[in-house]
């Protein structure tokens, strides 16, 4: 059954793809802002203050992580009601420990094994971690905590006026 408002039209995935593309675009904009902070602090620490590149990357990554979390919640993902912010942030930190590890591994490998400049290594690491971050944050923030019916999350079901459900 189709909803009258056109929000869901049977198996039409075009609307979902557009929403996902717009969401990913907002994610990239927030990511660009966070990257500017991350890379700017990294360059400042590395080139101005002479901080070792792995330490500089750790500090800059952590600062941008907090900024990114706030901006992502505000502008990118639609958080589910009733969630625990403390629990969500703890999981977010856990996911970002993995992201930081991935970032640092790629940075060290590009610099040590391939002889790239730390500035180039940081760019490569950031590009790889971007994909991991989108997927992990989308799953963390938007996942549905409600019981499932017939393998579908409750928000994937539409109820028509006769009490039946349709996709």
Main sheet characteristics: 2 strands, antiparallel
Number of extended strands = 4
- Work out the helix count: 4
C-alpha end-to-end distance: 7 Å
In short:
The chain is globular, with a radius of gyration of 20 Å. It is mainly alpha-helical.
Describe the structure.
The chain has 167 residues and is mainly α. 67% of the residues lie in helices and 5% in strands. It contains four helices and four strands. It has helices at 14-48, 53-75, 85-113, 118-142, and strands spanning 148-149, 152-153, 158-159, 165-166. The strands form two sheets. It has a two-stranded antiparallel sheet with strand order 1-2. β1 (148-149) and β2 (152-153) form a beta hairpin. The chain is globular, with a radius of gyration of 20 Å. The termini are close together. 18% of the residues are buried. Mean pLDDT is 80; it is low at 1-10 and 150-167.
